[in-house]
UniProtKB/TrEMBL annotation:
Residues 1-20 form the signal peptide. CDD domains: PBP2_NikA_DppA_OppA_like. GO terms for cellular component: ATP-binding cassette (ABC) transporter complex; periplasmic space. GO terms for biological process: peptide transport. It holds the Pfam family SBP_bac_5. This is 4-phytase. Keywords: Signal. The lineage of its organism: Bacteria, Bacillati, Actinomycetota, Actinomycetes, Micrococcales.
Amino acid sequence: MRRSLLSGAALATLGITVLAGCSAGGDDTSPSGSSDGDTSVSIAVTDPGILIPGRQTIAFEFAGVVWSPLTFIHDDGTLDYVQAESVESDDQQTWTITLRDGWTFHDGTPVTAQDYVDSWNWVAYGPNAAENSGQLVGIQGFDEVNAPEPTAETMSGLKVIDDLTFEVTLKVPDSQFPIQLSQGQTATFPMPASAFDDMDAYNAHPIGNGPFEMAADYVEAETVTVTAYDDFAGEEPTVDEIDFVPYVDTATAYTDVQAGNLDIVFVPASRLAQAEADFGDHFMAFDAPGISFLGLSLWEERFSDVRVRQALSMAIDRETINEQLYAGIYTPATAWTPVVEAGTPEGLCGEFCEYDPEAAAALLEEAGGFEGPLEIVYPGGSGLDELYNAIANNLRQNLGIDAVATPTADWAEFAERRTAGDISGAFFSRWGALYPSQQATMRELYLETGGCDNCVAWYSDEVAAGLQEADANPSTDGSAYAAVQEIIQDNFPVPPLFSEAYPYVTSQRVAEMPAAAGSPILHEVVISE
């Protein structure tokens, strides 16, 4: 955590919706943040639409209080067991998960191993089209179940042992599996047997195993209120009610926090430069598992020489961009995964991630120069204009390249063009992982099977083999992935830009707001007396 509130002073790049659904906007439902003697807290969110944990894509903070994960990963890499009593394996491939006894869903029914197996199979089943099914891809039998026309209804790698124990067999050994059961992987959250009778009804009133339960049915564009669950078997929350207030404009939510009508908001890009002046100690930024790059169309010959790619990187003044655009909350990237991911070898990038315009120009000349203009394409309407104009200016001034930043009409157009390889030049590239492990970033960026198509656009059999070897290594400090980072560094496919932090501001009511993986831990917020 770069700044912590009072006790020591978010999918996404600023302006893009982040993990903690906070690209919010205004309506007339803003609650008062100061009822007498209460310990409620309110947070701005994007209206989620879908609340089912295996399907939601922007309701992470809601899911994080209505459900409890099996495990919880902290920024220092330590792993706590929550709903799980233990997660054990002798070979990193077959895992035994033992649940804590005495835990119940909000309808009073006990949380059992069968509930987990049924929930995971429902999410994985292709015809259900669960958006988060990919979080279960490593389980044996997933491919047969997840197909559009599945050949099985349940994954062969799941087996119930008894009421509190189930076994998970993976396709290949994976030491990171316990971390994959942590708070960001909402596809692993359990649903009670009643959910499968009517999923539409369940979406309107989700029943979880977490510290908070729904106060009323979900209604589109209205505040969602959750209240402390009296029979919660875990650690008692520090607040008794949380209001998730939908906004369509984060600037409006920001103003509401200033006025004391709202407690927490993810800081919009348009307010970041002034946030610390506006809020003082109530402005904070949490290191997050997000990293950005200057993507390059590596399918073009003019990028084939690694010295060209290295020269572009050395010509970018990350420090100045960070200070002027991001209030200094980001960390200029010096490795190939975010700093918050355990074992990230900070400094690995060395001179090629340091600003040295003279050396950059000399290296580019040594490589034979750069052919043609350089268009930098990025999603329009995402608050990224200043960033890419600054990078284009750096490349023009320092390398003499005719660089220009060009926005697309919207995110959909950009994503379609990048996925299809229909870009000539450079482009927006970033990934925000759901759990803070180097594995979570490298799998998505550097494997052809990853979820960020053409973000880096460089795939290597050596990297794939190295990742599989690192996954099987039983060490938990992330050091096993160092060899993979060395391979990427030697090839230097694209310039790394920033390891991200997610910025928030709070009202004066909030005395403390802990966070993990860049997102607030809402059930541990402390309200001023």
